[in-house]
Amino acid sequence: QIQLVEAGGGLVQPGGSLKLSCAALGCAVSLNDMGWYRQAPGKQRELVADISSSGKSKYADSVKDRFTISRDYVKNTVALQMDSLKPDDTAVFYCHADRWGIIKYDYWGQGTQVTVSS
Fold this sequence. Notes:
Layout: E1 3-7, E2 10-12, E3 18-25, E4 34-39, E5 46-51, E6 57-59, E7 67-72, E8 77-82, E9 91-100, E10 104-108, E11 112-116
Parallel strand pairs: 2-11
Antiparallel strand pairs: 1-3, 3-8, 4-5, 4-9, 5-6, 7-8, 9-10, 9-11
């Protein structure tokens, strides 16, 4: 069973930076996409950024040019460098990964809180 373990959330002032990391444990198969979603209070969960098995990345418009996603294919980890953080970035961030078998399997981390406030 694949388990996604996140680290790196916390409280940061506007304009500051944080780096989130996520490790896929118990993974003996190739993962397809790995990435990050977030959910703010009263809002739906939304894609922040993800990166495919071939290295192609995509970002939400709201985070382009501020966030950078990276992935280590040997260690099965994914990281999100977040710069120029804004109060609107405050949310619970969830690591996500998927893989294809007969059907598509989705995996989620437990979530890590990111709070941007002065």
